[in-house]
Amino acid sequence: MIGNDLVDLHCASIESNWERKGFLDKLFTATEKAHIHSGADPFLQVWKYWTMKEAAYKIYSRMTGIRNFAPPKLCCTPGEHHYGTVLTDGLKFYTCTDTTDNYIHTTAALHSGQLADIRIEIIHYLGEMPAYASKNPACVSHHGQYLALIY
């Protein structure tokens, strides 16, 4: 199984006030919050961790049938380069995050070797979201003006 999540950075900068009191406490572990505050770009780190959690949760919820998104229970650990892991309920998910000037996109898999085999299609659109069902993606994510399909 594979999962993904995408955040449109322009949209996030306008619509989300991640610096408001209590926001980080609801979503992140103490270690994640420390890393966010000590990093070179806290804004990007918030959304990197968010996409890692969401991508892993999409796999977790399909595997277990549990539909209870509890972000602090999904523990992110950054790895080398763009890689990382997310742990929850004894399960480990491997992630790969791509950051551009416009978006952050994370893919997740149950096995690290699967990450290299994931095909990614990022579509920038204005207005109505393009039809994608006929492409049969394994997982879909969209935010703002971006649609991410993975196969």
From TrEMBL:
Pfam families for this protein: ACPS (PF01648)
Keyword Transferase in annotation: yes
Top-level taxon in the UniProt lineage: Bacteria
Keyword Transferase: yes
Domain 4'-phosphopantetheinyl transferase per the UniProt entry, residue ranges: 2-74
Keywords: Transferase
Single annotated GO MF: magnesium ion binding
InterPro entries named among the record's database cross-references: 4-PPantetheinyl_Trfase_dom (IPR008278), 4-PPantetheinyl_Trfase_dom_sf (IPR037143)
Protein name, UniProt field: 4-phosphopantetheinyl transferase family protein
